[in-house]
Specification:
Elements (H helix, E strand, L loop, with lengths): L2 E2 L1 H9 L7 E5 L12 E2 L9 E2 L3 E4 L13 E9 L13 E5 L11 E4 L17 E4 L9 E2 L10 E3 L7 H9 L4 E5 L3 E7 L3 E2 L10 E2 L2 H11 L3 E8 L3 H8 L7 E5 L10 H8 E8 L1 E2 L3 E7 L2 E6 L3 H19 L7 H4 L4 E6 L3 E2 L4 E11 L2 E6 L8 H6 L2 E5 L5 E2 L4 E6 L2
Helix pairs in contact: 1-6, 3-6
The chain binds adenosine monophosphate and magnesium ion (MG).
Length: about 425
């Protein structure tokens, strides 16, 4: 069977997937979700001219001569806490006490902070003074946040395809958006397979190992923003595999690991072929050469290789882009995916490769504005410890068999 290129496989895998429908979620629940619509400002922000200090609102022209030794005395005519509207217009010779965030009274064109008045250092609750002394001349507009100085009504604020962060939630709150349109979470059915797999929490018996992939793949799905439907662990029989896959109803993708090599107990391919469509590819990559793609009873299916590192890297290369596409992150097309997030690093040691596109576990360090990479140890597809020690994957291009110390390669930082 011929080897197919990573890029071609990814393109074929991505083709049938489309962005999911959008749903409204309460703002509080929207962090990490992906916006499904552009958000435009529906008002100016700030919405009204307001004070950025606790102080006195006045006419700047009244206080041009104010100084430490030559204070100007103004009559205090109003008291404006945050959340209240001013009741008076400010005329020459007058001032209003004003708190941070309170609307600027008409007539006033500057705010002098309390620290620059004789009303400094008063206990909260001190009644409004009749007069106030101003010790420093304010410039016109001092300490005033003008309506619309942050955002103009109609401005584009956040865009479809963006993953919402804490500051984005704050912005949406500022705009009064209570329900946020986000893409529905991809629902992913996750299956491990193999007679040797034992769930953690159970003592191991001879020849058995713990199920690792449910945890690594589950964690990666979770952080990519998916809802996981666990299909558990299937034994190496067609019956067990089918029974597990039948629990995948109403999911957007079935993701399995193992059982797709050439072993005598690798039944995944046979089951997929019987109940759906099977594409089995040997990919020109290392690790993770065998990959099954198709569908099971019309649900898209991706079968990753079973070794823990192969499954992990297979996820990064083939599954993450599928999820990004379902989440409307169109910039993550297969074309862009190949270059996305890549950094150039300099090798601290020579590297041998076998000509396949290789993803090697490495640790990247920064020194004098240059990134340097060193392999983290055994690169076998079962050596998970080198993945634990790694903070990046080096991507050795197809056709390259050796690289000298000091050569430059692309790398992906691991999240
Ligand atoms: P297979 O493709 O089924 O031959 O699996 C390849 C290798 O990966 C074997 O050594 C399996 O024991 C191992 N393996 C498969 N699935 C898992 C898993 N969920 N956790 C840990 N190791 C696994
Ligand atoms: Mg197996």
């Amino acid at each position: 069977m011929t080897l197919i290129y990573v890029h071609d496989a990814l393109e074929r895998i991505l083709a049938p997937f489309q962005p999911l429908p959008s749903v409204l979620v309460p703002l509080r629940d929207s962090v990490g979700r992906v916006l499904a619509e552009d958000i435009r400002a529906t008002t100016d922000l700030p919405l009204f001219d307001n004070s950025s200090m606790d102080g006195f609102a006045l006419l700047a022209s009244d206080a041009t001569q104010a100084g430490e030794a030559t204070p100007i005395t103004l009559q205090v005519v109003d008291d404006i806490p945050a959340g209240k509207m001013p009741t008076k217009e400010i005329h020459n010779g007058q001032a209003a006490r004003i708190m941070t965030g309170a609307p600027l009274p008409p007539g006033a064109d500057a705010v002098v902070p309390v620290e620059e008045t004789d009303f400094n250092d008063r206990a909260p609750g001190t009644p409004l003074p009749e007069n106030v002394k101003i010790f420093k001349a304010p410039r016109l507009g001092a300490n005033i946040r003008k309506r619309g100085n942050d955002i103009r009504n109609g401005a584009g604020i956040l865009f479809a395809g963006q993953r919402l962060r804490a500051q984005d939630l704050g912005m949406l709150a500022m705009l009064g958006v209570a329900q946020v349109p986000v893409y529905r979470k991809p629902r992913i059915a996750l299956l491990s397979s193999g007679d040797e797999l034992t769930p953690i929490g159970t003592p191991l018996t001879d020849g058995k190992i713990y199920d690792v992939n449910s945890y690594t793949l589950g964690a990666m799905l979770e952080s990519a923003g998916c809802e996981i439907i666990s299909l558990g662990v299937a034994a190496d029989t067609p019956k067990s595999v089918k029974a597990a896959l039948d629990k995948a109803k109403d999911t957007d993708l079935i993701l399995s690991s193992a059982g797709v090599s050439m072993g005598s107990f690798d039944f995944i391919k046979a089951v997929i072929e019987e109940e759906g469509i099977l594409n089995f590819w040997r990919i020109n990559m290392r690790p993770g050469k065998p990959l099954t793609f198709g569908n099971y009873k019309e649900i898209p299916f991706i079968g990753l290789a079973g070794n823990p590192v192969s499954a992990f890297i297979g996820f990064m290369v083939f599954v993450r882009p599928v999820i990004e596409k379902m989440l409307g992150r169109s910039e993550h097309s297969s074309e862009n995916r190949q270059t996305r997030d890549r950094v150039r690093v300099k090798l601290l040691e020579p590297i041998q490769s076998d000509g396949r596109e290789s993803y090697l576990r490495a640790f990247i360090d920064r020194k004098d504005n240059q990134l340097y990479a060193q392999l983290t140890g055994h690169q076998g597809s079962g050596n998970l410890f080198s993945m634990v020690q790694a903070n990046a994957l080096l991507i050795i291009p197809v056709g390259v068999k050796s690289l000298k110390k000091g050569a430059q390669v692309d790398a992906w930082f691991l999240d």
